[in-house]
Amino acid sequence: MNKLKNPVNDALFEAFLKLETLEECYAFFEDICTFKEIEAMGARLEAAKLLDKGNTYEEILKKINISSSTLSRVSKAFKYGTGGYKLIIDRVEEKKD
């Protein structure tokens, strides 16, 4: 995470924390990202959720539009990264309960 830490990214992440509704997220992300970037981030998060549930690579590749190399990168980050995927997956699940 330290390699990302700088004042510009701090401001970006602070902006993310100010978003309060799904509608605000859609408006902000549509302005700041391309459709493909949003779609790619969504696919990565969905892949992490499926990995968390114990799905195999083959099952995930059949369920969502993601390349095997991207899935491999998601899996590596999910297993050995900073814990960001697991943190958000757990928080989203908590909110559902």
Any overview of this molecule?
With 97 residues, the protein is an all-alpha fold. The chain has two domains: 1-32, no CATH class; 34-97. 76% of the residues lie in helices and 0% in strands. Helix 3 crosses helix 5. The mean pLDDT is 95.
Overall structural class, as computed from helix and strand content, comes to mainly alpha
DSSP strand tally: 0
Question: Please, how many helices?
Answer: 6
The shape, in one word, is globular
Distance between the termini: 30 Å
The low-confidence parts are: none
Number of domains: 2
Mean pLDDT metric: 95
Characterize the biggest β-sheet.
none
Share in β-strands: under 5%
Radius of gyration: 15 Å
Helix content: over 70%
What is the N-to-C succession of helices and strands?
HHHHHH
Jot down its keywords.
single chain, 97 residues, mainly alpha
What's the gist of this structure?
The longest helix is centred in the middle third of the chain and has 18 residues, at 35-52. This protein is 76% helix and 0% strand.
Question: What is this structure's SSE topology?
Answer:
Blueprint: H1 7-18, H2 22-32, H3 35-52, H4 57-63, H5 68-80, H6 84-96
Helix pairs in contact: 3-5
